[in-house]
Amino acid sequence: MLGQPGPEPITEGASPLQLLGTALAALLVLGSGYWLWQNGAGTFNSAGSAIAEAPVDEQANAANAAASAAASAAAVTAQTRSSYVIDGARVFSQDTITLLDGQFEALNVESGPQVVVMSVPSLGKASVEEYALRIANQWSIGDSARKDGVLLLVAPNDRKVRIEVGKGLQRVLTNADCQRLIDDVMVPLFRKGQYDAGVIAASQALVTKLKANPTLPGRSPK
User: Fold this and answer.
1) What counts of helices (H) and strands (E) characterise the chain?
2) Deepest of 50, 121, 153, 180, by most Cβ within 10 A of its Cβ?
3) pLDDT in tens, 58-109
4) CB-side exposure of 96: number of CA atoms within 13 Å?
5) CA dist., res. 190 & res. 17, Å (int)
């Protein structure tokens, strides 16, 4: 089930370091390569539909990856605090966290959609899709009826980014919209190590789009 009612703050679980304690053992070393765009596809609970058709060895790999994602995400629910930005990879400044936290809270209270930004030092053995899906469901991002949650996941050491979009917002934030946002806004700045600038620019674009498409009943676009 997704979400608390819009005005309620989202919850963060155990500290980012506790959440990713297991994943740290598999931390990847930065080398050659590039950021891989990964966009949220479908509702938060729709991943994994193709696994049943995979060969046995691929089924086992997929099951192990899903278990890794589940283990990494499971600790998220243990402790509560009001926050929309969780910087497990320690790549954002405190000023950026404070700025985005305020913008996301105002969006949630005034318009309904709930946006969460999370950075992680490693995805472990999980794919970025599996990891993002588990986190989105564990935190119940967005309202359960409106399905209006958005998770922006950044894994700097794995060089992957994903925007997971709740079913209720998929007409507002399409796959093409998210791809352009990551490819044209975030990736060029992340390649330069400018994580603050990249996440601020992407977040402000999301807020602007979502304010123009409120999900709270009776709210007018801003």
Assistant:
1) 8, 5
2) 153
3) 444 444 544 544 444 444 433 333 589 999 999 999 999 999 999 999 999 9
4) 21
5) 22
- pTM: predicted TM-score of the whole model, two decimal places: 0.69
pLDDT digits (tens, 9 = 90+) for 13-52: 444 434 334 333 332 222 222 344 333 333 333 332 222 2
Distances in Å between the Cα of 217 and the Cα atoms of 5, 108, 142, 169 are: 12, 13, 15, 15
Tokens 């700045």 belong to which residue?
Answer: 189
Tell me: the pLDDT tens digits for 144-179? 999 999 999 999 999 999 999 999 999 999 999 999
In whole angstroms, what is the distance from residue 66 CA to residue 147 CA? 23
Cα–Cα distance, 113 to 38 (Å, whole number) = 21
Rounded CA-CA distance 1/51 in Å is: 22
Separation of CA 65 from chain center: 18
Q: What sign has the CA pseudo-torsion 133, 93, 82, 171? A: negative
d(CA 131, CA 124): 9
Residues 78 and 14: beta-carbon distance below 8 Å: yes
Kindly report the length of the chain.
222
Going along the chain from its start, the domains and CATH numbers come out as 16-211 (3.10.310.50)
DSSP bridge partners of 117: 85, 152
